[in-house]
Write a structure and sequence with these properties.
This protein is about 55% helix and about 10% strand. It is mainly alpha-helical. It has two domains: about 5-40, no CATH class; about 50-185, no CATH class.
Length: about 190
């Protein structure tokens, strides 16, 4: 009786095989050998990613969709002319227009708060860098020369903001979190 398998070993065997070993005659050594053979030797405890890390992965995965909307914005080019009869100044204008976009959600929803905070951080860091990497140095200089740097367009164009925020909201929905988007021209 002293060398019989322990209740923990029997439970481990049950978890592995789904067979009840409570009434089986089994030594500690036999149980240990069975656990080692039947169990997954490469088993590693699953590490769960944080919600913000999952969001970044999701944004990277759906970046091309957002970039497609950005291209639509960049295809709209116009000139803003000062309303002055003599020597009016002119400025280049690219995109749909400057917008203000943000999320609304229940204020006690900690997960929505975490997503919102991460989305703001990624928007102007990792995802903006991915956006800028899609352009050549010559294209980046062109937009700077006309007075509309690509980074500024990325951060201000309402269409680009909406594409980004819709992607974040889709991620939140996939996690069962309700977030609404508010957007208006500035």
């Amino acid at each position: 009786m002293e060398n019989t398998a322990t209740p923990r070993q029997r439970w481990a065997l049950y978890c592995i095989t789904k067979k009840d070993y409570r009434n089986e005659i089994l030594s500690k050594e036999e149980a240990a050998k069975m656990i080692k053979e039947l169990g997954d030797p490469n088993y590693k405890k699953k590490t769960t990613k944080s919600l913000s890390a999952e969001l970044l992965d999701y944004l990277k995965e759906h970046f091309d969709d957002m970039f497609g909307e950005a291209i639509k914005s960049l295809s709209l080019k116009s000139v803003v002319v000062e309303d002055k009869p003599k020597d009016p100044q002119k400025w280049a204008f690219v995109g749909f227009g400057c917008g203000i976009t943000y999320f609304t959600y229940r204020k006690n929803n900690k997960k929505a708060e975490e997503i919102n905070k991460a989305a703001n951080q990624y928007h102007y860091n990792e995802i903006e860098k991915m956006f800028l990497k899609k352009f050549t140095a010559k294209e980046i200089k062109y937009y700077e020369k006309i007075g509309c740097p690509l980074g500024a367009i990325w951060g201000q164009d309402q269409n680009m903001q909406l594409a980004y925020y819709h992607t974040v909201r889709d991620f939140a929905k996939s996690k069962g979190i309700e977030m609404n988007i508010v957007s208006r021209l500035d």
